[in-house]
C-alpha cells in the first residue's frame, strides 16, 4: 500500500516536472517578454498621438496636467481589464469575438462585431480626412504650389492607398509594421528639436479660459477623455498578447506575467508620448493650438507651417503623412476583415452563397465612396474623435470588460477593485461625450 502510494507520488512529481518544463519561469524576465513589451509599445503609439497635443494644449495648463495625470492609469487599467476577460476564456484563441460569444452567446457577439466595425471604420474615415489635409498643407506651405481641388486630391489619395493594398496587402502591412519604430524615433527627434522653441505662454492657469469658458472644469475632463482613450488604444493586439503568455507561462501565471509586461510597455509609451505632447505644446501658444484645431491639421503639420526651423518644416509633414498612411492601412485591413466576415455570415444566414470576388468588390466600392466623401467634406478630426471614435473605443475597452467582470462568474475574483471603478467611470463619461456633443 505504502509502496504504491510512494510510486504514485513519484509519478505525479515526474508529471509536474514535465508540465513545468513546458513553460518558462514566470519569475524571470525573458527575451520574449522584451519582444512583447516592444510590440505593445509600437502598437500603442499611432497617428492618434499627432492630435493629442492639440486637445491637451488648447485647454491651457490644466488640461495638459490632467492628460499627464490620467493617461497612464487609463491606458494601463483598461487594457489590463480587457486582458483579464480574454485569458479567463476557453475561447481566447478566437480573440475577443470568441470570448464574447462564450460569455454572452452568439447574438451578443454579432452586436459586438457591429460596434467593433464602426469603432474601426470611423478611424479609417478620420484618417482619410487627416491624409488629405496633410497632403494639401504640404503642397501649399512646403512646396509653395497652388492648392489642388479637394475632390480630386482626396480621391487620388484614397484610390492610391486602396490600389497599393490590393496589389500587395501582406507586403504593404509588413512594410508599415517596420515603420513603427522609425516613427517613434522621429517623434522623439521632433520633440527634442522643439526644445529651443519652448516658451512660457502655456505655463499660466489663466490660459485655461481658452476652453473652460461656458463648460467648466468638468466639461474640460469630458473634452480630453475621448482623445486619451483613442490615442492610447491598442485593444486589437491584446488577444494575441494574452494567448502567447498563456502558452508560454501557463494559465496560473498569465495574469501576473501579462501585468508585468504591460506595465513595462506602458511606462515607455507614457514617457515618449507625454514628452512629445509637452514639447509640442510648449513650442506654441494656446491661440496657436486653437488655430491648429480650426485648421483641422495634425500637430506636426501645424508646427511645420508655423515654426522657423528648416528641419521641422520639411521633416514634420513627411513624418505625419507616413504615420497617418500607416494607421489608415492598418485600420483598413481590420475593417476589411470584419466587413468580409459580416457579409459572408449574413449571406449564409439567408441561404445565399456570395463569391469572394463579389464580397471584395462590394467592400472596395463602399470604402472608396465613403472615404472620398468624408475626406472631401472635411469634418473636424477632433470632433470625430470626441463624438464617434473615442466613445466607441471606450465602449469596447472600458465598459465591456467591466460589465463582463460584473456578470460572468469565472471573473468574480476580479471584482471589487478601485481600478474597476476608475475604468467604468472613464468609460461611461467617454461614451456620454458623444451624446453631449449634440447638445
From TrEMBL:
GO annotation, biological process: amino acid transmembrane transport
Lipid bilayer topology: Multi-pass membrane protein
Entry protein name: Septum formation initiator
Domain of life: Bacteria
Cell membrane found in the keyword field: yes
The keyword Heme belongs to this UniProt entry's keyword annotation: no
Keyword annotations of the record: Cell inner membrane, Cell membrane, Membrane, Transmembrane, Transmembrane helix, Transport
Transmembrane segments annotated in the record for this chain: 36-54, 60-77, 110-130, 150-167, 179-198, 218-243, 264-284, 311-336, 357-375, 381-400, 421-438
Phylogenetic classification of the source organism: Bacteria, Bacillati, Bacillota, Bacilli, Bacillales
GO cellular component: plasma membrane
InterPro entries linked: Amino_acid_transport_2 (IPR018227)
Subcellular location: Cell inner membrane
